[in-house]
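Cast an eye over my tokenised protein here and flag anything odd:

===
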Amino acid sequence: MKQLPLGIALPKSATFDSFYADRNSQFVAAAKACAEQRKPEPVYLHGPTSCGKTHLLQAACNRAAAGGKQPFYLPLSTSESLTPDILANLESLDLIALDNLDAIAGIEAWEQALFGFYNAIIDAGSALLIAARSSPANLEIQLPDLRSRLSACTIYRLEELEDSEKIAALQRQAEQRGMGLNEEVGRYLLSHVRRDMGSLLNVLDQLDKASLVAQRRLTIPFIKEVLKP
């Protein structure tokens, strides 16, 4: 795990190379530009749950850190255990990635703090990446000025992968782990576990650990054995 400012840690597996871009290549390019501070305007990404938003934000932070910059990844889904004060002075860092923005929509204290933070980011010239399930137009933000700021971001919709793309993504992730995963195994996983990428990658992690312990390849009989109730 890579330790970042304020104690936030990111998985090393979150990289751009391990993400299957395909139709989402435009956002990947924008996220890379933010990580390398080549893109001055804030970038806002939205799309359905488990379509890769978190992976891309974390990949951008890992890329920034590898380049000697100071990134900060903040999952706002944990906002119940945080206070808006956590946003104070973050603009002094090189890249700030705010994930799950939906979690603080409609909470006045968070919206006011985020509005001030956004303005500070613009003044400081730091890079900002935001991810949410909904677009700014459909987000339940109550503060009009904040909605206006978010709508001024460069906005991308992350498209959910089709089945063939999910298998290709699983194969890429397996390759990153030093495993082989053929198309037949990929189709089997799509048919027997939840089909969203978050669930599929969690299962792949489980299979990775089991294959290391058992010293076995990813075959359908082995997968059945590992995943049996």
About this structure: The chain is about 45% helix and 10% strand. The radius of gyration is 19 Å.
